[in-house]
């Protein structure tokens, strides 16, 4: 028997791990690692990026406060993911479609929903779903956004809408769902303009990324669907923006879909419903990520350039938080939903038995 | 007018809606060049092009997700699930996403999707193909379930379903596909959704049925007519929602009722009809509600179907029992 195996599976397996380094513009010491890309941003751009991240962090802090006061419904914390969320969403244009997951409420607001609507969505009031933006509401079913995004992408293509794409998000856990592969595969098969973004924050609730899949990167899950994909430093807003923008430009030129994996971290709990990350994460493991805080990184660059100060930031945070307090007051003033309205909105043309039910509830509600 | 099979009537309807509205799209597994595994979409790709009638990758959740997304961007999709038994793969997209779209957007947006799928037994298909899943899908608020019993209704109901802005699950009976012909008007006509049809008038007892069982009930009515028993037969046509008004009116005349379904007895359409009668018309009854349904087993393998699916003989027995109560 010959010693040479017919296939060297080990070599093939090792080859899977030969992937490029995640794309980065600013490293964790706030050193510029890609001067050429960095130079494409004006001072105003850099300040704008910082403001957006400060806004998202303030939104998170104030919303957590409201949550502790019992004033919120479901809320998925975003602290730590600002670069990934704001960086990618800032590459969107108004006419683009957004198919967000539950942790992507800040992007939904950036794309046209009001904070009041976001709060009403969190509480479970239908008015929270009535935003004017081209967007789905935050998706709770993991993977579902990906298959729907394929349809939205094909719709855009069929409508011959120029300069328009669909953005959709899921997490590292979401890439294990069959739907996420079906969505990418459909979009690939139809060359539909969909930007699939995986925000890999290391955990699906408590399940670490390594238990999710043996694939060396999540980005390469797109390869089987024939879709180009990259990993990006998800704590570097400049890299996240630049890559999302490049992907969008590539797609509006008539090329098919793209997938981006952002390497990020959720600093706090999975949701505000009492999950305790200490049960599945250690201090030692978390510390390096805290040091990669996207706000610290960009703040340092801006301060060095004399474009940012602590006072300026504090003032902004106060302004933002005041606006969120206004928003929740507005939400408090929205009249509760009625059963008769729920029945009315179930079908465009109410069924005969529904008409009877509507009459019954309207009579009750008018008392 | 021309004599047409159930399949030809459906193809007719699809041709009309594609012609009428450039936003309508047909897609699914093998619906293009192959015209679907039953040839229901035969010729449509040739006529309307690959942009309007196209094959998808093999993934039911993907197909329904595609439909949801296309609906959201202004299209009117008519996806096909090749066999109803495969619809479980798409349940989240149908029940969790599509059927809730209008409700979630408070009417701002909707998803005018008509899902076509063949169902039902008696054709000896392979396992997992022939399930009668209407019991399961009629439990979904926001989704209409339409089940035509003959070629005329199939065409008219399919056109109504596609033109309706709410999602519809349009179930096509496998056995009827080629076993039944009707005179079908050429061109467009519609049959209303949400309305049952009194297909035969009678005074002694009412049979409420839908799908292929309507034809079995009509056979029973013929047989009993020879014995001077006058049977009224109601075809539900839409099984969610159920047109209770037509049923109550009939019972007020006949005072006796037998409900027939091809699906398992548990939960579902027949149970819904019986409970509606208990709520709304019980005092009109002179006898208990009679029910004929398949037993509550898992759907049988091909060779078990013929003894499992209730046919005219079982219906006649039950009708006699209720008449003689
Ligand atoms: C289909 C489905 N299964 C399970 C859940 C429950 N669930 C909610 S969040 C979550 C973890 C998701 O992790 P990931 O995709 O990594 O996103 P992240 O929360 O980290 O942003 C699970 C299992 C769900 N929402 N949907």
From TrEMBL, chain A:
Q: Which domain of life is it from?
A: Bacteria
Q: Where is the signal peptide?
A: none
Q: Which Gene3D superfamilies does this entry report, sorted A to Z?
A: 3.40.50.970
Q: Which molecular function GO terms apply here? A: branched-chain 2-oxo acid dehydrogenase activity
Q: Per UniProt, which keywords does this protein have?
A: Oxidoreductase, Thiamine pyrophosphate
Q: Which Pfam families match?
A: E1_dh
- What job does the chain carry out? The branched-chain alpha-keto dehydrogenase complex catalyzes the overall conversion of alpha-keto acids to acyl-CoA and CO(2). It contains multiple copies of three enzymatic components: branched-chain alpha-keto acid decarboxylase (E1), lipoamide acyltransferase (E2) and lipoamide dehydrogenase (E3).
Record family assignment: Belongs to the BCKDHA family.
- List the protein's name: 2-oxoisovalerate dehydrogenase subunit alpha
TrEMBL record, chain B:
Name the SUPFAM superfamilies on file.
Thiamin diphosphate-binding fold (THDP-binding), TK C-terminal domain-like
- Keywords, A to Z? Oxidoreductase, Thiamine pyrophosphate
What Gene Ontology molecular function terms does this protein carry? Answer: oxidoreductase activity
Q: Where is the Transketolase-like pyrimidine-binding domain?
A: 4-179
Bilayer-spanning residue ranges = none
KW Acetylation (keyword) present: no
Q: Which cofactor does it need?
A: thiamine diphosphate
Record Pfam families? Transket_pyr, Transketolase_C
Q: Which Gene3D superfamilies match?
A: 3.40.50.920, 3.40.50.970
Q: Which InterPro entries match?
A: THDP-binding, Transketo_C/PFOR_II, Transketolase-like_Pyr-bd, Transketolase_C
Q: Mind telling me which PANTHER family this protein's record contains?
A: PYRUVATE DEHYDROGENASE E1 COMPONENT BETA SUBUNIT, PYRUVATE DEHYDROGENASE E1 COMPONENT SUBUNIT BETA
Tell me the protein's name.
Answer: Alpha-ketoacid dehydrogenase subunit beta
What is the scientific name of the source organism?
Companilactobacillus zhachilii
């Amino acid at each position: 028997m010959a010693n040479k195996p017919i296939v060297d599976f080990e070599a093939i397996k090792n080859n899977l791990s030969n992937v490029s380094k995640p794309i980065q513009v600013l490293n964790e010491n706030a050193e510029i690692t890609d001067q050429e890309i960095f130079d494409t941003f004006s001072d105003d751009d850099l300040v704008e990026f910082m403001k957006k991240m400060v806004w998202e962090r303030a939104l998170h802090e104030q919303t957590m406060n409201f949550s502790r006061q019992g004033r919120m419904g479901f809320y998925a914390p975003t602290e730590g993911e600002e670069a990934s969320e704001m960086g990618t969403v800032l590459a969107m244009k108004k006419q683009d479609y957004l198919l967000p997951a539950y942790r992507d409420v800040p992007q939904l607001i950036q794309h046209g929903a009001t904070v009041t609507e976001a709060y009403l969505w969190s509480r479970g009031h239908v008015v929270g779903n009535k935003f004017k933006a081209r967007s789905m509401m935050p998706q709770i079913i993991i993977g579902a956004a990906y298959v729907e995004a394929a349809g939205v992408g094909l719709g855009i293509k069929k409508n011959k809408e120029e300069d328009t794409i669909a953005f959709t998000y899921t997490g590292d856990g979401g890439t294990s769902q069959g739907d996420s592969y079906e969505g990418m595969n459909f979009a690939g098969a139809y060359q539909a303009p969909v930007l699939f973004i995986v925000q890999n924050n290391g955990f699906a609730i408590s399940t670490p990324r390594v238990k999710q899949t043996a694939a060396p990167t999540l980005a390469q899950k797109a390869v089987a669907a024939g879709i180009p994909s990259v990993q990006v430093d998800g704590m570097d807003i400049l890299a996240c923006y630049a890559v999302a923008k490049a992907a969008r430009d590539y797609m509006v030129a008539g090329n098919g879909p793209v997938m981006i994996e952002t390497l990020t971290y959720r600093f706090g709990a999975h949701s505000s419903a009492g999950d305790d990350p200490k049960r599945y994460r250690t201090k030692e493991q978390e510390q390096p990520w805290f040091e990669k805080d996207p706000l610290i990184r960009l703040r340092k660059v801006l301060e060095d350039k004399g474009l940012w100060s602590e006072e300026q930031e504090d003032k902004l945070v106060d302004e933002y938080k005041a606006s969120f307090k206004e928003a929740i007051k507005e939400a408090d003033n929205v009249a509760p939903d009625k059963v008769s309205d729920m029945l009315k909105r179930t079908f465009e043309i109410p069924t005969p038995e529904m008409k009877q039910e509507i009459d019954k509830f309207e009579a009750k509600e008018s008392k | 007018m021309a004599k047409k099979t159930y399949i030809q009537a459906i193809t007719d309807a699809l041709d009309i809606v594609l012609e009428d509205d450039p936003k309508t799209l047909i897609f699914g597994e093998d619906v293009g060049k192959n015209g679907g595994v039953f040839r229901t979409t035969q010729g449509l790709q040739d006529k309307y092009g690959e942009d309007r009638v196209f094959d998808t990758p093999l993934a039911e959740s993907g197909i329904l997700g595609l439909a949801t997304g296309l609906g959201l961007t202004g299209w009117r999709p008519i996806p096909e699930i090749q066999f109803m038994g495969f619809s479980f793969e798409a349940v989240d997209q149908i029940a969790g996403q599509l059927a809730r779209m209008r409700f979630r957007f408070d009417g701002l947006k909707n998803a005018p999707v008509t899902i076509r799928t063949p169902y039902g037994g008696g054709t000896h298909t392979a396992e997992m193909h022939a399930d009668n899943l209407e019991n399961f899908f009629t439990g979904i608020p926001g989704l209409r379930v339409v089940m035509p019993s003959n070629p005329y209704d199939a065409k008219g109901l399919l056109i109504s379903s596609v033109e309706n802005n709410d999602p519809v699950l349009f179930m096509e009976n496998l056995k009827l596909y080629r076993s039944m012909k009707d005179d079908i008007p050429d061109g467009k006509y519609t049959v209303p959704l949400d309305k049952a049809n009194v297909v035969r008038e009678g005074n002694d007892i009412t049979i409420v049925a839908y799908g292929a069982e309507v034809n079995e009930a009509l056979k029973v009515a013929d047989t009993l007519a020879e014995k001077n028993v006058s049977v009224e037969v109601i075809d539900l046509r839409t099984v969610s929602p159920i047109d209770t008004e037509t049923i109550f009116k009939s019972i007020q005349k006949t005072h006796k009722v037998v409900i027939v379904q091809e699906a398992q007895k548990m939960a579902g359409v027949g149970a819904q009809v019986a409970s509606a009668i208990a709520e709304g018309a019980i005092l009109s009854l002179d006898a208990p509600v009679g029910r004929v349904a398949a037993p509550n087993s898992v759907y049988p393998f091909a060779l078990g179907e013929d003894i499992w699916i209730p046919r005219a003989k079982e219906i006649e027995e039950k009708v006699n029992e209720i008449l003689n109560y």
